[in-house]
Amino acid sequence: MNNLAPLGTGSWLFIGCYLCSLLLIGWLAKKARTENSMQDFYLAGSGFGPVMLFMTLFATQYSGNTFFAFTGATYRIGYSWIVCLHFMTAIIIVYLLFAERLHILAKQRNYLTPGDFIQDRYQNKALTVIVAIVMIAVLCNFLLAQLMAMGRAMEGLNPDDGPAAYNMGVVVLALIMVVYGTLGGMRAVVWTDALQGAILIVGFALLVVSLLDLFGPIGKATQILMERDRVSGTRFASVPNAAQCREWLSYVIGVGFAFAFYPQAIQRIYAARNTVALKRSLLVMSFMPLPTMIIVVMTGVIALAYFPGLEGASADQIFGNLLREVQMSSIFGYGLVLVILSAVLAAMMSTADSALLSLSSMLTKDVFARCFFGLASEEQLTLVGKIFSWTMLLLLVLLAIVLREEASLVKLLDRKLDLLIQIAPVFILGLRWRALDGSAAAIGLLTGISIALILAYGDLTFVHNGKVFNFHPGVVAVVPNLTITILLSLWFNRRLVVKKNIQNSSSINT
Amino acid sequence: MFQHFPTFFVYIILLTLAIPWYWDSDSQLIWFGFPAWVVTSVLISLIASIVTCVIFLRSYDNT
Questions:
Q1: Do the Cβ atoms of B35 and A86 come within 8 Å?
Q2: CATH assignment of A9-418, given 1.20.1730.10, 1.10.10.10, 3.50.30.10, 3.40.50.720?
Q3: Which of A37, A78, A176, B38 has its CA 20 to 30 A from that of A20?
């Protein structure tokens, strides 16, 4: 958000009050707790109705970072980033494959973490730990991206201070987040999600109206981009070529099957009060990509048409240029930008705290309790979870400060996709195919992860821009993963049947 | 929720139509201020959302 006009004392006071209100929500959520158990802290006890569930699913999937990163992505590649509309829709379609069954099981067996389902279904500790480690790695990546986005936002608000503002932003916002998360657990996270989700969507809709008012109709921006395509050979408004179409297919499959398995999203499926609440919230969610992603793409296209020239990680900051124009246009514009800035900061925090809560629950339940201290009481485990939250956040804050200028936000998104999609067969097939074997799934999963990482980091000649013929390494690697999982399961089951037959015949003979 | 096999084919067809591989690469058509291929893609996404919504609504009966 570089280039914003300097904010006055009143504006900073407003942002400060807004952020402090999150602490108040955390305190109220602590008061609303019914018991000191992990179920209450991490899943808010009996769960959420359709409205709260929808708001929290929305705020989890569409963070402030989404608006930054996706506006930046549109700025880099033009209209072709409309693919984001399809991959966000694909996530909801993938929920059709597993969400209801998983929710019913979660209610029957009191699941808390994704690892609980894996252990219950497969009775295979190795598989449970592998899935937990993959999800923890993804959550760390996710949390890191949110922290870096928070830092960049604060850097944009104080362009004169540069790195110092970035560092201060990461530290202060992370501190507020962890305090209200520790106070109120899942309840605080969902309540803040609801507040921020509502402000964010209304704020952005008003922002697009302001931008159209300032720069004229979107058709004008489209014509500018088409003219630029004609003169300089870019493809900002042109029909995607074959390579881009393959990349679209990869994004739709990859993001759809990967991001439906975000641990925090799975825990929200667990936290639905009942199946009807889950279905109603997902029903509304199926329409949310349309307004949100169209707003994001329009914002990026206007930025690309009127503020060309930014590259790399700085393209993620293009959003700030647009905000400045709105901010300088009128008193209404100034107020609108102020509300959007507060909501964006808070939305980043709400997305990050969901990830932090999932991270601490998985470290506590799937790693600490399952591998080391299975006999610890609920109170002890809740305390350990809070300690994990603070420790992990501290480490990631330090990493965010060290990596300040290193990675583009969309690159971080791609690595999450590569890892998370490998988990999809374990959940989807596990819920639908009784014969799926835990050891087979573990071998398939490890193979998939290894291939994805080799393709992503192996410096291979046939990998261009981190993709294999425009397909994400994770999407390519899930094919051998799935094949090995299915074939080995069939083989193991066949061996089991033969073994049982031999035992039966020998018992008849004796 | 995803009980019927034909539904799977509906989504495959929608995915095939959502990706603008079948558009002329030189197309300069603008509809409602957007490139025409973008409008088509958005409409397909709207249909996908409606299909998903119908599946959720119909599955209420099974709950």
A1: no
A2: 1.20.1730.10
A3: A37
Measured between CB atoms, which of B25, B30, B35 is closest to A241?
Answer: B25
Q: Nearest-CA residue of chain B relative to A251? A: B19
ipTM metric = 0.93
Q: Which helix (H) or strand (E) holds B30?
A: strand B30-31
Q: What is the pLDDT of residues A75-95, one digit of tens each?
A: 999 999 999 999 999 999 999
Q: Which residues of A touch B (CB under 8 A)?
A: 79, 82, 85-86, 89, 92-93, 95-97, 99-100, 217-220, 222-223, 226, 237-242, 245, 248-249, 252, 275-276, 279-280, 282-283, 286-287, 289-290, 294
Q: What are the contacts of A243-246 at 24+ separation with CB within 8 A?
A: A243/A470, A244/A80, A244/A470, A245/B19, A245/B20, A245/B21, A246/A469, A246/A470, A246/A471
The residue written with tokens 């799977």 in the block is B8
Cross-chain Cβ contact A219/B35 below 8 Å: no
**Quick check: B14 pLDDT over 80?**
yes
Q: What is the pLDDT of residue A477?
A: 97
B49 touches chain A (CB under 8 A): yes
